[in-house]
């Protein structure tokens, strides 16, 4: 019997990386289910979390998945507290098992390509070993990709010595630089964006041969976001939203692992209360490190860190959810009218697709770049100002920005209109003859050519 053409995909830890890669696989198979199977080989730190299992359980049967044996969590704690080296180390420690799985796949299937996350690039040599082509599925936008491809040049000329947040000798800088240097070596880069959203960055990438040699093809196939699930049993957040007026609720969430200091958590609580607007807030245990819950999840109950009496006082005004909420279902719900977000790329795209204006509150990584795109270029978000002395965004400022997007003011309505226009443009990009569908089809042909 003829073996089915198979593509192996290797995400790195973190929902912000796993979710878009799974959604990319689903999109590819929605258009090309007769041509391919996809096999996910997932490096892990400890057993998969309930939210990971819930995500995996919804996969269609032509996407196979294997959790690679968990690596020793102590190795990560000892070596670095930052998610970038942690993600890279997790993949690095998983390489022997990954090689075994690829070997098994290549004996059972017609394995043609390895699709890696930017932070899984330590596995790139395996594509050469198995004589298959290699791709990156880049989990942020075209501007961030351009920045990453240019970074080795900046590093050589030392332009970023002052501006980059980490010293040149730090493990974060070294890990990021090494991924940037490997990126041009792949056959192609899949990027989750669309022409209307980032026209200049996409053009620069497609024309930017001088940036890096060799120069892989770039496929802007987005926006790829999860579809809201039609659940038979209604989730607590959705049930609560069902009872709220249209576009009345501000959704507050800092991605899959963003964290704030105790003082900042208190100010958000008081600011939301002061605004008088309805809210649905995903709360985390406070931390001085903004991404402490990213790779290694939190186990404590975060509600106990809210100001005393807050939950009781605001029970008519808001809903507080510990650690995780069904974000896509919330953003797609008609009662949601705004999103206070850390501007992770997936959250950004999900808000755009569902036409929800934002309060941009970037915390780490390329989120500041995304925030500038949303506030200055696209003008679909407002950005709160931190206090000049301690950087904390105070309650009055929070209440002010909440009102700016949630009140029916001219400014709020204009932002809503602009993000709705972007949402419409996203739908066009993904339509039958849209730019992203065409890019996806080019990519599928590439995969198929390799299989002959
Ligand atoms: N997410 C979710 N519920 C939560 C927090 C996050 O479903 O309570 C999902 C969100 O919809 C998005 C992803 O997790 O798809 C977060 O990715 P993003 O790029 O926004 O941020 P990151 O987690 O990488 O910082």
UniProtKB/TrEMBL annotation:
Metal-binding recorded as keyword: no
Keywords for this protein: Glycosyltransferase, Transferase
UniProt superkingdom: Eukaryota
Keyword field contains Glycosyltransferase: yes
EC annotation from Swiss-Prot or TrEMBL: 2.4.1.-
Transmembrane segments: none
Family to which the UniProt record says this protein belongs: Belongs to the UDP-glycosyltransferase family.
Name under which the protein is recorded: Glycosyltransferase
């Amino acid at each position: 019997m003829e073996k089915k053409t198979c593509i192996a995909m290797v995400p790195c830890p973190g929902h912000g990386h796993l979710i878009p890669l799974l959604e990319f696989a689903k999109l590819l198979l929605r258009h090309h289910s007769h041509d391919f199977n996809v096999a996910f080989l997932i490096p892990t730190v400890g057993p998969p979390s309930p939210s990971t299992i819930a995500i995996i359980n919804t996969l269609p049967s032509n996407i196979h998945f294997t959790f690679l044996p968990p690596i020793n969590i102590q190795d990560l704690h000892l070596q670095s507290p930052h998610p970038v080296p942690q993600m890279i180390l997790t993949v690095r420690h998983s390489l022997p098992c990954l090689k075994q799985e690829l070997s098994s796949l290549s004996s059972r299937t017609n394995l043609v390509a390895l699709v890696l996350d930017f932070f899984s690039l330590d596995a790139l040599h395996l594509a050469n070993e198995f004589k298959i082509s290699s791709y990156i599925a880049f989990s942020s936008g075209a501007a961030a990709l351009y920045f990453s491809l240019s970074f080795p040049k900046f590093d050589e000329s030392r332009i970023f010595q002052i501006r980059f947040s980490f010293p040149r000798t730090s493990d974060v800088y070294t890990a990021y630089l090494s991924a940037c240097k490997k990126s041009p070596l792949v056959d192609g880069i899949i990027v989750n964006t669309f022409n209307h959203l980032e026209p200049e960055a996409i053009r620069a990438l497609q024309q930017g041969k001088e940036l890096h040699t060799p120069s892989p093809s770039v496929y802007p196939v987005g926006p790829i976001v999860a579809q809201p699930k039609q659940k038979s049993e209604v989730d607590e957040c959705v049930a609560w939203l069902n009872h709220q007026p249209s576009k009345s609720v501000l959704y507050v969430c800092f991605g899959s692992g963003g964290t704030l200091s105790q003082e900042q958590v208190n100010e958000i609580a008081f600011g939301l209360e002061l605004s008088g607007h309805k809210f649905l807030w995903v709360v985390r245990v406070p931390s001085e490190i903004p991404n402490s819950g990213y790779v290694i999840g939190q186990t404590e109950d975060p509600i106990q860190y809210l100001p005393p009496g807050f939950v009781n006082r605001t029970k008519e005004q808001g809903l507080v959810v510990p650690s995780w909420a069904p974000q896509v279902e919330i953003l797609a719900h008609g009662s949601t009218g705004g999103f206070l977000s850390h501007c992770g790329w997936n959250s950004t795209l999900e808000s755009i697709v569902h036409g929800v204006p934002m309060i941009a509150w970037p915390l780490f990584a390329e989120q500041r770049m995304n925030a500038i795109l949303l506030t200055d270029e696209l003008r679909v978000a407002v950005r709160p100002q931190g206090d000049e002395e301690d950087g904390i965004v105070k309650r009055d400022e929070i209440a002010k920005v909440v009102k700016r997007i949630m009140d029916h003011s001219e400014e709020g309505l204009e932002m809503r209109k602009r993000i709705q226009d972007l949402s419409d443009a996203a739908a066009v990009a993904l339509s039958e003859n849209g730019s992203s569908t065409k890019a996806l089809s080019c990519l599928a042909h590439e995969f198929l050519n390799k299989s002959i």
